[in-house]
């Protein structure tokens, strides 16, 4: 048996880390790529901006509910703790593993993408892409093995650099006035099937770029004052991310007309090439690397916390709760890193990433439902923070989640089929683990 006192996480994280991990875990290269794709789908300036604002409003309303849940049950692993408390072990088991898979895929992907961006800067390294990706993964594993404080420091530094880079890019776009932008053709056929399909596909992409907004909740158990720090970090972090995303889209449209941007696979690079000339691609590559290092660091820390929580509840091996002197759940980190190493070696992410938005919406929706349930069944639970305008904001979040999930099923039935398959397989596995426990 492991010593429960020895294997407790340390309360060594504060407000600045919470905001840093939210920003670091949310803003990636998605915002540099997706504006062009979304412009191609919607082809309407106001509808595009409204879609980004809608995604931001959705996560802001979600943050309002999560602020109460995370301060009421400040435990490692985030969402699944609330779902398990409200709806029982199986709901907790399924949502916990959905959440784990969603958060355990990105580290491998980010290691590979960083190595690809390094090759753009240093072409002589072209034959060493996989080696660099594995080396990067090992470097971050070693960093986090030294303890939570070092990981926290790196997160705060890289997140700050990331914000500076994106703000600088926005300012550069608005200062540019070298091209007369033609009038944007509006499309009034919103209710046509094609545009409706494009709208939901766009929202799927947008929700994907906002994914990570609840990162601070995974570290609630390690926070020195979760009752105050988590609500502050959720609201301030989400508002900052929404502002950056919306301003970047407006800034890109200031430089390029919508018809041109719609044909871009990497919108930020095309915009930067116009503003900075031949050095534009290099500037965007450097911004991308800073952005990816920050998000990689965040996602090296998140999956082990989920696995630690699952292990503590008997949904993974008992040794998954082992914590080293630096406060790192060491076995959970090593298992997650081996999974990342496996993904780097096979290098196939398309199918895995396609259902990430699905699983996120399902887990968030169940978490919102758990808030309603726990308010009714456990009204006396200590609640340092209470959701604003409850229950209406939580009900709106649930309705929005159902609407988005319905839209995602309509636009991507294959990913939904994968999720149904995983759910069916998970039930017998749950009972095996339960009997062993």
UniProtKB/TrEMBL annotation:
Keywords: Membrane, Transmembrane, Transmembrane helix. The keyword Ligase does not apply. It holds the Pfam family AA_permease_2. It is a multi-pass membrane protein. It is found in: Membrane. The chain crosses the membrane at residues 12-33, 45-67, 104-122, 128-148, 160-184, 190-213, 234-256, 281-302, 330-349, 355-376, 388-410, 416-433. One of its GO terms (cellular component) is membrane. GO terms for molecular function: L-amino acid transmembrane transporter activity. Coiled coil: none annotated. PANTHER family: AMINO ACID TRANSPORTER, SOBREMESA, ISOFORM B. This is Amino acid permease. It comes from Flavobacterium hydrocarbonoxydans.
